[in-house]
Amino acid sequence: HGKENVDSRHSRGRGGETTRFHTVNVAQPVRFSRKCPTGWHHYEGTASCYRVYLNGENYWDAVQTCQRVNGSLATFTADQELRFILAQEWDLEEKTFVRKDQRRFWVGYQYVITNRNHSLEGHWEVAYKGSSEVFLPPDPIFGTAMSEKENVLCAQLQCFHFPTLRHHGLHSWFAENCYEKSSFLCKRSQTCVDIKDNIVDEGYYFTPKGNDPCLSCTCHNGEPEMCVAALCERPQGCQQYRKDPKECCKFTCLDP
Q: InterPro entries per the record (predicted)?
């Protein structure tokens, strides 16, 4: 687990002769920090990746966009997951469809109206089947673009741009007309990402993102497993050299 400080070691072989071992390059422990494609945020607690899409789409189009990247509109399993979402900086631009200090995203809930008396009565449901067990939002704020004919409204999570508000977890839930256009939050399972930022399918060999381009692992449940490291000999006839960070056993000689 540590680099050898000596270039060679000695031991006694058969018949008393001295055997010389050369330590060329010792494999280092590797931390795998990237389990999501570029642009996605990883949360260890749910082994999931999250991404905000800024292009304004209605709820149904947003559902399809998330499905195309093997995900779905985000639902949440615990308060800790929601706090993680609220604490992120989502690299938002002027393209968002609400005030600059407030961000609203479509998420994977729908509000079903059961009674239209003096106040709207109803309940939240998860918008798609097959979701893992989730918590449901509290009573919503009703959007301004509601139609009297609609009995199903769609969920928007509002978070705040200012860091102090974000880190205090301040947020609101809106029940909005599903045909309004809004940014949206997709969620997908973590995945294997190779050193060149390609997504790797389950069961395939790949070199994970990290500092060792000579590592070969198998992708299992979004994690690199059964990793094998190749050890490279230093380039011959070269005193100073640089290793290529993305190609195994490729060196650049820095000698004059």
A: C-type_lectin-like, C-type_lectin-like/link_sf, CTDL_fold, DGCR2-like_CTLD, IDD, VWF_dom
